[in-house]
């Protein structure tokens, strides 16, 4: 019996995050005068998806001396400016869904995004109800504990007092699926982010949904 549903945030609860992150990364490189082929940029981002700092490090692997400056440009000028939030779009029906789910389940978030971005900017802008028992971010964990490491999910399970067999994790990326499996949690993939249906099937995912608002179909 499912008692806890944990969500990734970006492109699961809201749309447009992928485009927002890509814009922030590319503008950061431009600000630093780093020139990389467009396909190479996309490849490096995709290969390290799940942690902002890890992606920046991969993008700057030939220029790691610029990492401190890059982090400052990314966060202060791009991410916490308007560029990221302005790229986001409301997912129709998600607010009503969360309210319904809260009546039956514990809800939590395990995300590569930042808690203050989620709580202070995104939730108010899109009127997302504060129904989450816990929000854990990559920024809350030690280096090396980001996706696909199961630490974030294990932390939520421990805090909420729920077993992995009573939990679902909903994500949109390969790192989400691997993190769930590493924690012994059943993964659910939504096709609103990084994975296609074929890619999700290749990862052995049983539950694949067009978007998160269809989750009640598998819960019933």
Description:
This protein is α/β, with parallel strands linked by helices and 220 residues long. The protein is 46% helix and 12% strand. The chain is built from 11 helices and 6 strands. The chain has a 6-stranded parallel beta sheet, with helices on both faces. It starts with a strand and ends with a helix.
Features:
six-stranded parallel β-sheet; Rossmann fold; alpha/beta; 220 residues; 46% helix
Could you give a short description of this structure?
By secondary structure, the chain is of the alpha/beta class.
Give a topology summary.
Layout: E1 4-7, H1 17-32, H2 38-47, H3 52-59, H4 67-79, H5 83-87, H6 94-102, E2 106-111, H7 115-125, E3 134-137, H8 151-160, E4 167-171, H9 174-182, E5 186-190, H10 197-202, E6 207-209, H11 216-219
Parallel strand pairs: 1-2, 1-4, 2-3, 4-5, 5-6
Helix pairs in contact: 1-4, 2-3
* Nearest-integer average pLDDT: 94
Name of the CATH class of the largest domain: Alpha Beta
Total beta strand runs = 6
Q: Helix count?
A: 11
Q: Tell me, briefly, the overall form.
A: globular
* Order of neighbouring strands in the sheet with most strands: 3-2-1-4-5-6
Structural class, by secondary structure, is: alpha/beta
């Amino acid at each position: 019996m499912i008692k806890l549903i944990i969500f990734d945030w970006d492109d699961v609860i809201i749309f447009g995050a992928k485009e927002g992150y890509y814009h922030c990364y590319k503008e950061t490189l431009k600000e630093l005068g780093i020139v990389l082929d467009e396909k190479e940029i996309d490849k490096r981002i995709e290969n390290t998806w799940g942690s902002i700092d890890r992606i920046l490090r991969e993008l700057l692997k030939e220029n790691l001396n610029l990492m401190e400056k890059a982090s400052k440009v990314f966060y202060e000028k791009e991410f916490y400016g308007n560029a990221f939030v302005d790229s986001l779009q409301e997912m129709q029906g998600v607010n009503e869904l969360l309210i319904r789910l809260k009546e039956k389940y514990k809800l939590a978030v395990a995300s590569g995004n930042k808690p203050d971005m989620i709580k202070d900017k995104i939730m108010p802008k899109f009127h997302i109800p504060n129904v989450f028992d816990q929000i854990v971010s990559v920024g809350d964990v030690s280096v090396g504990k980001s996706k696909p490491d199961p630490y974030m999910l294990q932390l939520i399970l421990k805090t909420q007092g729920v077993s992995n067999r009573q939990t679902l994790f909903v994500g949109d990326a390969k790192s989400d699926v691997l993190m769930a499996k590493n924690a012994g949690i059943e993964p659910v993939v939504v096709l609103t982010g990084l994975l296609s249906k074929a890619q999700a099937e290749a990862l052995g995912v049983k539950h694949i949904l067009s978007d998160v608002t269809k989750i009640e179909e598998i819960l019933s």
